[in-house]
Specification:
single chain, 193 residues, alpha/beta, Purple Acid Phosphatase, chain A, domain 2, 6-stranded mixed beta sheet, 3-stranded antiparallel beta sheet, 3 helices, 11 strands, 17% helix, 28% strand, globular
């Protein structure tokens, strides 16, 4: 599965693609969105895994309440394991979601800032948590973009076309150990180059 974020609808070409690819998720808290879904249930035979994508509100678009959105999806689609991708700018908002869902989901993983945080933990009631998974993309980059493009944009304040640099890439994320009761028993950061 792939989760989107605040750029899910940046290119109109994706609109008609989303309904035919239910494992490509856009944030679930877009109000009355006809394109794709913000959640997916994987049927693994002896277990089910629900993955939910929601977008935070602090410094981002004014969408539906992500807390209520997650509550509704969990209620409507009970699963053995539930992973929430909370695509948000503010770490405090991400942590609030983690504590809000503690003991009710397997993990809350933050995304958006492209910089892996070192705060992976298992919360008090058994939910795995990290503020940001990090980035998959070029090592020599600023958020996956050529550094020269970003520096030019910041120093001239003029519109700049961004490019993806060549060179070595990295993959960052976490590995979760999940118990049969759906809760997290281990969480480890991964950084592959």
């Amino acid at each position: 599965m792939l989760t989107g974020g605040n750029h899910s609808f940046k290119r109109r070409e994706i609109y008609d693609y989303l309904p035919d690819h239910p494992n490509l998720l856009r944030p679930a808290n877009y109000p009355d969105c006809p394109y794709g879904e913000g959640w997916f249930v994987l049927d693994g035979g002896s277990y089910t895994m629900l993955v939910i994508s929601v977008l935070g509100l602090v410094y981002l678009e004014p969408l539906d309440d992500p807390f209520k959105t997650v509550d509704r999806i969990i209620r409507e689609h009970p699963a053995t394991y539930t992973i929430v991708d909370f695509h948000a700018e503010a770490t405090g908002e991400k942590m609030a979601m983690g504590y809000y869902l503690d003991g009710r989901v397997s993990a809350v993983v933050g995304t958006h800032t492209h910089v892996q945080t070192a705060d992976e933990q298992i919360l008090e009631k058994g939910t795995g948590y990290i503020s940001d998974l990090g980035m998959t993309g070029p090592v020599r980059s600023i958020l996956g973009t050529c550094p020269e493009d970003i520096v030019r944009k910041m120093t001239t304040h003029m519109p700049t076309r961004f490019h993806v640099p060549d060179g070595d890439c990295k993959l960052e994320g976490v590995v979760l150990d999940l118990a049969r009761n759906g809760l997290c028993t281990g969480i480890r950061r991964v950084q592959l180059r």
